[in-house]
Structures are given as structure tokens and as C-alpha cells.
Amino acid sequence: MDSESVKKAVIKQVLIESNTANARQLIEAPRTRAASAKINENCFEKCIPKPGSSVSAGEKACITNCMEKYMAAWNLVNTAYVRRIQQEVNNNSFET
Questions:
Q1: Count of domains in the chain?
Q2: In what residue span(s) does the Tim10-like domain sit (predicted)?
């Protein structure tokens, strides 16, 4: 291998590792407390406009649906992002 080929291989490997780390971070982000708190806050504001002494069955269902929709959207975005990274790696688009 000549030095240019080695350079391209190293750059490609670094970019792959970086993108993999970014994808992993995106996937793990909803598991953090801050992300969970934000989901809860948004769904609570949407589903319980006038808090009382108890939560109704309809409000509980609304919160459950809201959180499920958020997680489905999150998974869709993550899947698309990981697929894009894989396509770029397969197409050798990281070469300079």
C-alpha cells in the first residue's frame, strides 16, 4: 500500500468510528434523565391542561400515546441516520 492509500484508509476508519459514536449517542440520548424529563414535560402539558387532584383515564391514555409517538419518531430518525451512515460507508463517499 502506498502512503496515499494508507491515508485514505485511516481517514475512512476515523470517520466511520466517529459516525458510529454519533449514532450510538443519538440512540442512547432518550435514556438520559434530561430527555425523559423533556418527553414527560411535553406530554404532560399536552395531555393535562388543567391539573387536578387525580389523573383521568383519558389523560393517562393521552400521555401513553404521546410518549409512544415520540419514541416511534425517535426510532425512525435514528434508523434513517444509521442507514445513511452505512450507505456512505458502502459507497466509499468518505474518500478524499
A1: 1
A2: 31-81
Would you say how long the chain is, in residues?
96
CATH number (domain holding residue 73) = 1.10.287.810
23, three cell numbers? 449514532
Query: Which grid cell sits at 47?
Result: 395531555
Percent of all residues in the chain with a pLDDT value above 90, rounded to a whole number? 18
d(CA 28, CA 35): 10
Q: Which residue has the higher pLDDT, 51 or 23?
A: 51
By residue range, what is the domain housing residue 27?
3-90
Residue 96, domain member (yes or no) = no
This prediction's pTM: 0.54
